[in-house]
UniProtKB/TrEMBL annotation:
InterPro entries: Bact_solute-bd_prot1 (IPR050490), SBP (IPR006059). PANTHER family: ARABINOSE-BINDING PROTEIN-RELATED, SUGAR BINDING SECRETED PROTEIN. This is Extracellular solute-binding protein. Pfam families: SBP_bac_8. Keywords: Signal. The keyword Cell inner membrane does not apply. Residues 1-33 form the signal peptide. It comes from the Bacteria. The keyword Signal applies.
Length: 447
């Protein structure tokens, strides 16, 4: 999804971050288009051969299954199956192609990934083109987070997608900057500074700024504050009837007030996330806090560099929210639907989700995975050995079931990249920024 300015939408930003994400500090993920590299024994053409069935995977960016060795493991367990993955680097290119293939009923992979910002549109307008996975062998509803399961479930109870990763948010903060500003640095004490309330987070920001190290700000951007504040609400941009209500949404209004207060209170570094200036600000230590889901940790590590090791830490956010996540679906028009259902169920089972987290940093949507040692005992050495498994698991369990709409991403992006950017960087009033965002959204929605 793009605005008229051509800036990438949230899913595009997430993929930018995923290409840099470290698997618990062990290495970086790398972006891929069609990898041109077949798994062991797979034919380059993706067809059947040698008495084996080729199950095709269509994904965007890096899902990590190949890199984590899960494809190889599955093929060892099922010698009659081989897996071929094709990846398009950015979701804003991948998703329109998926809709085109669904419309024609051809060109579909046996398994197709769907990003969370698109799942409502697929579930409400394309559900009849996907297999109901709710009763598939090997799929246990209770192993998934209830809110994640609900996101890909139709009103009549059909579940067309199995959850892969999620993005429960915490607050990453610079201990060295907090210490110099006279604030506590222990992650439990830091979390208590703003527990339960984003306005208390701003109050902490004011405390920080009174003694802030020269040239630093409390938080990176107003848009980052808004994103985190709005993410913890059940109702944001749409009502349960599927109508856009963002202009009257209490959650949106409150998150907007908090974000613009951060800008007007000079708590922000006036940056735009995932731009070069943002990257440079990490390297230069220009801001003390940033809202971060698990996949952001590797990005922070890469951009901040070795000199900031053990300067960053992770604390619970004022309120839990989600940023990111995807699903695996099985189109009815695929060539090998039975085999695809089995593979999708296996890849999203708790054990495989835990393995993917350990090796690639993708946080599980399976709540059953949180009890496994790969997740429960996970710590990140770059972030002061923070217990990220326990911290993000607790956040994930508290995220509400959100009412999603087909253009959630478009509405959100225009609020942050048009309205808030004008307030944060151009000095416009909150009212002027809001009116600019509304005009841009209405134009994009043809209203």
């Amino acid at each position: 999804m793009r605005t008229s300015s051509g800036r990438p939408g949230r899913q595009g930003r997430r993929m930018v971050a995923l290409t840099a994400a470290a698997a618990l500090g062990a290495g970086l993920l790398t972006g891929c288009a069609d990898d041109g590299e077949d798994p062991a024994g797979a034919s380059s053409g993706g067809g059947d051969g040698g008495g084996r069935t080729t199950v095709t995977m269509g994904v965007f960016g890096v899902f990590g299954y190949r890199q984590a060795g899960l494809y190889d493991t599955y093929m060892q367990l099922h010698p009659d199956i081989r897996i071929k993955e094709t990846s398009i680097e950015r979701n804003e290119n991948y998703y329109p192609q998926l809709l085109t293939h669904l419309g024609s009923g051809s060109g579909l992979a046996d398994i197709q990934a769907v990003e969370v910002s698109n799942v409502n549109e697929v579930t409400t307008t394309q559900a009849d083109k996907f297999i109901d996975l709710s009763k598939a062998k090997g799929v246990e509803k209770d192993t998934f987070l209830p809110w994640k399961w609900a996101q890909s479930t139709t009103k009549d109870g059909r579940t067309i997608g199995l959850g892969t990763d999620i993005g429960p948010m915490a607050i990453c903060y610079r201990k060295d900057l907090f210490r110099r500003a006279g604030l506590p640095t222990d992650r439990k004490k830091v979390a208590r500074l703003w527990a339960g309330d984003w306005r208390t987070y701003l109050a902490t920001g004011k405390r920080y700024m009174r003694n802030a190290p020269r040239g630093t700000a409390f938080v990176d951007s107003a848009a980052g504050v808004y994103n985190a504040a709005v993410a913890g609400n059940a109702r944001r941009y749409y009502n349960p009837g599927g109508e856009p209500v963002y202009q009257d949404s209490p959650a949106v209004k409150e998150a907007w007030r908090i974000a613009t207060a951060a800008a007007k209170g000079k708590l922000t570094a006036r940056l735009q996330q995932f731009q070069k200036t943002w990257d440079q600000a990490y390297a230069n230590g220009r801001f003390a806090t940033v809202s971060c889901p698990p996949w952001m940790l590797g990005y922070i590590k890469e951009k901040s560099g070795p000199k900031a090791e053990d300067q960053w830490d992770v604390a619970a956010a004022p309120r839990p929210g989600n940023w990111g996540g995807s699903f695996l679906t099985v189109p009815k028009a695929g060539r090998h639907t039975d085999e695809a259902v089995k593979l999708a169920a296996w890849l999203t089972a708790p054990e495989q989700q835990a393995t993917l987290f350990r090796k690639q940093g993708s946080f599980p949507s399976s709540r059953a995975a949180y009890k496994l040692p790969q997740v429960a005992k996970a710590r990140h050495p770059y972030f002061g050995d923070a217990p990220i498994g326990a911290l993000f698991s607790a956040a994930a369990e508290s995220i509400p079931t959100q009412v999603l709409g087909p253009k959630d991403s478009l509405i959100h992006q225009n609020i942050t990249d048009v309205g808030l950017l004008q307030v944060d960087q151009q000095g416009k009033t909150a009212d002027e920024g809001w009116k600019a965002a509304v005009r841009s959204i209405d134009n994009a929605l043809d209203r």
